[in-house]
Amino acid sequence: MEQTNFPITHWSEDDRPREKLMLKGKSALSDAELIAILIGSGSRNESAVDLSKRILASVANNLNALGKVSLSQLISFKGIGEAKAITIIAALELGRRRRAEEAVELTKITSSKVVFEIMQPIIGELPHEEFWILYLNNSNKVLSKAQQSKGGITGTMVDVRLVFKAALELGATAIILCHNHPSGALVPSEADKHITKKLKLAGESLDVKVLDHLIVTETKYYSFVDEGIF
């Protein structure tokens, strides 16, 4: 005999995600319950919460991994149409952008870990390489961050003149170089070392210090300074 789940409207009020949020606050909800609020409804045989649990299980209950799932992959779940899939993607993207904005607000750089916390939400999960610069004032606080190249790192793709033109316009006294390795590898390439040396030499003539170069992956980072090769 086929089992039919009770819809959320038949649950006790304390167990309904929306009511639970209003009564107990957002932190009382599980990831699945928050996603259930986004999608609104499940199907005749599956509640919105159960559907959300199934979606999360497909990415090992990892929200970062869910943020990489494509529209077509979400739509492949029974009960998820285009509108619901777009809602999930939009919500996760807003969360990613919020992390990025919170991290950069005049943050003082005190260690390579602080740089990683700023840059991971921006480049740590990208499928391609990007090269970014953090511009710092004389108190080592972040004045700005800027993408310099996309798709790979070579001496010709990173324009040294533009890097230091921005530094002078911002009144930056130091910069930190950052790029990601989508492969997850934390070993600097010869190209990584070459562009680091090139930018350090250029900075010396303009009295703008290159403080470090970080390679960022989804969960880890490599600091040229920490590894003693800077």
Short description:
The chain has helices at residues 17-24, 31-39, 48-57, 63-66, 71-75, 82-104, 112-123, 160-170, 190-206, and strands at 130-136, 142-150, 174-180, 209-216, 221-223. It has 230 residues and is an alpha+beta fold. Strand 4 and strand 5 (221-223) form a beta hairpin.
Question: Strands, helices and their partners?
Answer:
Blueprint (H helix, E strand, L loop, with lengths): L16 H8 L6 H9 L8 H10 L5 H4 L4 H5 L6 H23 L7 H12 L6 E7 L5 E9 L9 H11 L3 E7 L9 H17 L2 E8 L4 E3 L7
Helix pairs in contact: 2-3, 6-7
Please explain how this structure is put together:
With 230 residues, the protein is α+β, with helices and mostly antiparallel strands. The protein has 9 helices and 5 strands; from the N terminus they run αααααααββαβαββ. It has helices at 17-24, 31-39, 48-57, 63-66, 71-75, 82-104, 112-123, 160-170, 190-206; strands spanning 130-136, 142-150, 174-180, 209-216, 221-223. It has a 5-stranded mixed beta sheet, sandwiched between helices. α2 packs across α3 (48-57) and α6 packs antiparallel against α7. The model has no long low-confidence stretch (mean pLDDT 88).
Descriptive terms for the model:
230 residues; alpha+beta; elongated
Point out poorly predicted stretches: none
Number of helices: 9
Helix percentage? 40-55%
Structural class from helices and strands?
A: alpha+beta
Largest sheet: 5 strands, mixed
